């Protein structure tokens, strides 16, 4: 009986080891399938988003292209751009503008809704997409306007959204591209960069400068305090600055130098063209 019990115990032990290995293999297989499925989904989402953005850009900027086509004046280009944005708004009523930066892949619609969560993971067609959209802070008012247009966007390994905004970490790039274009539905603005910096999202209890809270200024002191702080943070010296009464635009994205890191550029509007 002892020998039979021993043999039975060995058999049971062998079965348990086989079952454990089988369970492990099944679990790893499921994990592998899930990982591959997510990779395929993510790759497809990036491709789909890129294709959609290219189609939107072609619609909005053709013939309103940055480099004027033969026979097209700068005034005609801007007029066409504003007309195309009015048409595009019929597809998504949340459209408030268009952002284009030479030397980058940034040539995107800017959206706005009553919260800062929706377009974190929804595209222009209001479909779920991890790349989200470029969007204006809910507390900014283009019509009023508020002192600062605070615009957010994700970064992407594929170079989409605000990934190439980080080109401005290099001073040489800034010197070659000191301005960018932002158009609302009524006006086209030329924006002069005055600061390029890294920051982070801080705890509420931390008494430090939090650039992402500044959307409007109640007085000159509040405005100048913001300018002085972003100039101090700037990664390199920029002679251009801003004065109370100037319209600001801040572009903000993630950065990975610290936990909850941020990278931002601040510009002032130096020229604008209105629709006729």
Describe this structure in words.
The protein is of the alpha+beta class and 276 residues long. The protein has one domain: Sortase (Sortase, Chain: A, Beta Barrel). Helix content is 35%, strand content 22%. It contains four helices and eight strands. It has an eight-stranded mixed beta barrel. The model has no long low-confidence stretch (mean pLDDT 88).
**How would you characterize the largest beta sheet?**
8 strands, mixed, barrel
At the third CATH level, what is the topology name?
Sortase, Chain: A
Mean pLDDT: 88
Number of strands: 8
**Which runs of at least 5 residues are low in confidence (pLDDT < 50)?**
none
| CATH class group | Mainly Beta
* Structure classification: alpha+beta
Secondary structure tally, helices: 4
CATH architecture type = Beta Barrel
Q: What is the radius of gyration computed over CA atoms, rounded to a whole number of angstroms? A: 26 Å
Secondary structure: helix percent:
25-40%
Q: How many domains is the backbone divided into?
A: 1
Assess the beta-strand content as a share of residues.
Answer: 15-25%
Order of helices and strands: HHEEEEHEEHEE
How widely separated are the two ends? 102 Å
Order of strands in the sheet with most strands? 1-2-3-4-7-8-6-5
Overall shape: globular
Write the layout of secondary structure elements.
Blueprint (H helix, E strand, L loop, with lengths): L1 H60 L12 H16 L5 E6 L6 E5 L22 E3 L11 E5 L18 H6 L2 E6 L2 E14 L19 H14 L14 E8 L5 E14 L2
Helix pairs in contact: 1-2
């Amino acid at each position: 009986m002892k020998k039979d019990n021993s043999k039975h115990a060995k058999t049971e032990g062998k079965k348990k080891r086989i079952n454990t290995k089988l369970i492990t293999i099944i679990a790893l297989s499921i994990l592998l399938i899930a990982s591959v499925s997510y990779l395929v989904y993510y790759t497809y989402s990036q491709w789909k988003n890129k294709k959609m953005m290219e189609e939107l850009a072609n619609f909005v900027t053709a013939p309103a292209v940055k480099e004027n086509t033969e026979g097209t004046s700068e005034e005609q280009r801007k007029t066409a751009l504003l007309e195309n944005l009015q048409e595009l708004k019929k597809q998504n009523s949340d459209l408030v503008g268009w952002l284009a930066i030479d030397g980058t892949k940034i040539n995107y619609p800017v959206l706005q809704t009553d919260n800062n969560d929706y377009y974190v993971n929804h595209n222009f067609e209001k479909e779920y997409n991890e790349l989200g959209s470029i969007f204006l802070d809910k507390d900014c008012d283009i019509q009023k306007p508020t002192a600062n247009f605070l615009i957010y966007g994700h970064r992407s390994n594929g170079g989409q959204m605000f990934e190439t905004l980080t080109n401005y970490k290099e001073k040489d790039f800034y010197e070659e591209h000191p301005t960018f274009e932002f158009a609302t539905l009524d006006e086209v603005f030329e924006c002069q960069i005055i600061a390029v910096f890294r920051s982070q999202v801080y705890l509420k209890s931390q008494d430090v400068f939090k650039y992402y809270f500044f959307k409007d200024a109640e007085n000159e002191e509040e405005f100048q305090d913001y300018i002085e702080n972003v100039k101090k943070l700037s990664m390199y010296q920029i002679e251009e600055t801003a004065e109370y009464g100037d319209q600001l635009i801040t572009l903000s994205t993630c950065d990975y130098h610290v936990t909850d890191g941020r990278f931002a550029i601040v510009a002032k509007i130096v020229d604008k063209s209105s629709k006729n």
